[in-house]
Each structure stands twice: as structure tokens, then as C-alpha cells.
Amino acid sequence: MTVTLPSVSEKHRVRLQPLELPERLLLGPGPSNAHPAVLEAISRPPIGHLDPKFLELMTEVQGLLRYIWQTDNRLTIPVSGTGSAAMEATIANSVEPGDVVLVGVMGYFGNRLVDMAGRYGADVRTIHKPWGDVFSLAELRQALEEHRPQILALVHAETSTGAEQPLAGVGDLCREFDCLLLIDTVTSLGAVPTLLDEWGVDLAYSCSQKGLSCPPGVSPFTMGPRAEEKLARRKGKVANWYLDMSLLNQYWGSDRVYHHTAPVNMNFGIREALRLIADEGIETVWKRHRDNAEYLWAGLEDLGLTCHVPVENRLPTLTTVRIPEGVDGKAVSRQLLDEHGIEMGGGLGELAGKVWRIGLMGYNSRRENVDRLLSILADVLPRS
Ligand SMILES: *Cc1c(COP(=O)(O)O)cnc(C)c1O
């Protein structure tokens, strides 16, 4: 049988050369460079997402995530999507319409939590800190007393400011006020200590492309027993089919029922990324990030530059550096990218035009990268 295929218009035809990319050292707020072994894992031929080998891999990834997050949470999975998808998963599964959700806003990502919680029908309350600052336990207590929320949401590592929110004691406080603790660990997981169970965290999320040395695409999510109970008790369905943990639980739990096709190659990648961290040992990984950050801070100071965040709240993964008076911050970033292939971030929101953001995350947290950046900055910046 001969079938005549329809003729097509050439109007939309595009002819391109095979993909070519410049080499980049990504020292901005993310993505960070992926580890070569992770890229190698991702390039393997896919297998079926219900293949027994893949099911085994899913279990391995869950175990590795529990290790680096330091949690026993049964419901710990990589969400298919970027960090924002995992963020939305925590909100969608915990917020019921009318719930009071208190968000501690100390930067850009706190505002994203506010936006998301509002979309799921929460009665959103906020407390604020200037960008670069963090909340004290006393301030959190006072806000819990005033607002009596069902959920307190905080950003552990505010990538927009470079500040680390201390979390010791916050979970106990939340239990006292019978509220769940939800935290953003996108720029801390696999780089800065995240002691979820010790801190009493009920819901947390992260991403693959910052501390984990994997490209963006799958994002860790975890939910503890108190959050699971709230999910089981809810009156209506989770208002997001894709991220509904009562459904995803059947895929990632013991039933292994098809929900959606997991991005298998990205799961190869995150397995390798997490395996490398577990091999190095999570405490060694935390120490490496801390040491390289301190080395960077000392070098910046030697160049006459000032870090925006006081050292006691400064995040090892992301450093905000004040742009000196009279220096065109954007032009310096552009020169670094064009002439040296190095990406640095600019300021957001309150810090727009005021700081550069330097990331040392995962595979990129190495002394040689700090040396390279510092020597270029020394050349590019005017001598003071
Ligand atoms: C990067 C980031 C996100 C968002 O993650 P995406 O992967 O960009 O969706 C959320 N929170 C924080 C603190 C981040 O740094």
C-alpha cells in the first residue's frame, strides 16, 4: 500500500549546526557545574521506568537522600522538575484552603513561598527581615504567638542574600505551637549541614543543580510523619495532580504503580551525584564547603572587598560581595564571562546593583576555583 504523506510548508524549517557550547565555570547562584561522573551517568541509554533495575535505583536514591538530609522520613523522593516544583510539592501537599501559613521573608525565595501558598488558598502571614539578615528564635516565637499558623515556612539558605537561617530549636518551637515546619534547603543540601530530624523539620525540598553537582531536572522532596498525618486528614484532594504525594507515594512506595514517567536519565544522574557525596562522607563534604568559603572570604578581604552578610550568618555556598563604589558591577560580570568563561551572579531585589553573588557549590567548591576567581578579580578590579 502506498500512502501519500502530506506535503509541508517550508516556512518553519530551521537548519542548525550540531550543538556547540562554550566552556563555563559556573560560580553564580546556580546552576553549578555538574560532576563529570554525573554527566557520564546521565548519558547512559535509558531503561524502562518500571524496569526492576530502575525500581532498585529509586530505592537507592531515596536512601541516599535520607543520608544527606539526615532524616528517617519514609516519604523522601526526587520530584520530577526543578527546585520550584519540589517547593510547590511541599506547599500543595501541606496547605489546605484557609490554613494560616506564616512565611519568614528575608529574601527573594521567601516571597516565592508567599506567592505559592496564596495560590493554594492559604491565609498567608509574613514577617520580614532586611535582605542579608536572619530571624532569631525569639522573633519566631513572637510571630508564632501572634499568628498561630498551621505551617511555618523558612528558607534555610537564602540564595538571593547569602544568609543562612539558623534552625536549631525551631522545630521544638513549632511543636509547642502545634504547627508544621517547612524549609527550603535548595542551596544547602549536600553542602551545608541539614539536620532535618534533629531540627524537627516536617517538610523540606531542594534541587539537583546547586550543592549536588547534577544538572537541573530532579529535585529532592521529603515529608515527615506529622506532615503525612495532615495529608491523610485533609478534606479535599491536593490541588495539583502531578505533585500529589498520596499518588506519588504509590509510585515511590511499595506498590510501584505508574503515575508519570520518571525522567530516568536524570535519576541516573542524581544517583551518581548522591553516591559521590556518600562516598566522600557528608561531614567531609560540609567541611570542604566551609573551608573553601572561608578561603574565598579571606581572599576577597585581601582585595579590599566587603561581604554583605556578617560572618556568623554567612552561607558557605553563596557569598554576596558588595560592589565597590564607582565600579560597574554588570561590566565586571560581563568581562568575567566573555574573557574568562566564568559566571558570577548579580544582585536581586533589595540587593540589585549592590552585590555580586559568588557560588561555591558541590563539584565547584574547590580551592583551585577560588584561586582562579580571585586572581582574575585582582586583575579586573581597580586598585584601591
Ligand atoms: C534556586 C532556588 C530555588 C528554585 O529552584 P529552581 O531549581 O530554580 O526551580 C528555590 N529556592 C532557593 C533558595 C533557590 O536558591
UniProtKB/TrEMBL annotation:
GO terms for molecular function: alanine-glyoxylate transaminase activity; L-serine-pyruvate transaminase activity. Keywords: Aminotransferase, Pyridoxal phosphate, Transferase. Belongs to the class-V pyridoxal-phosphate-dependent aminotransferase family. Coiled coil: none annotated. Substrate binds at residue 357. The lineage of its organism: Bacteria, Bacillati, Cyanobacteriota, Cyanophyceae, Synechococcales. Gene3D superfamilies: Aspartate Aminotransferase, domain 1, Type I PLP-dependent aspartate aminotransferase-like (Major domain). Pfam families: Aminotran_5. It comes from the Bacteria. SUPFAM superfamilies: PLP-dependent transferases (SSF53383). Its cofactor is pyridoxal 5'-phosphate. Its EC number is 2.6.1.44. Residues 48-373 form the Aminotransferase class V domain. This is Alanine-glyoxylate aminotransferase. The modification N6-(pyridoxal phosphate)lysine is found at residue 210. GO terms for biological process: glycine biosynthetic process, by transamination of glyoxylate. It is an enzyme of class 2 (transferase). The keyword Transferase applies.
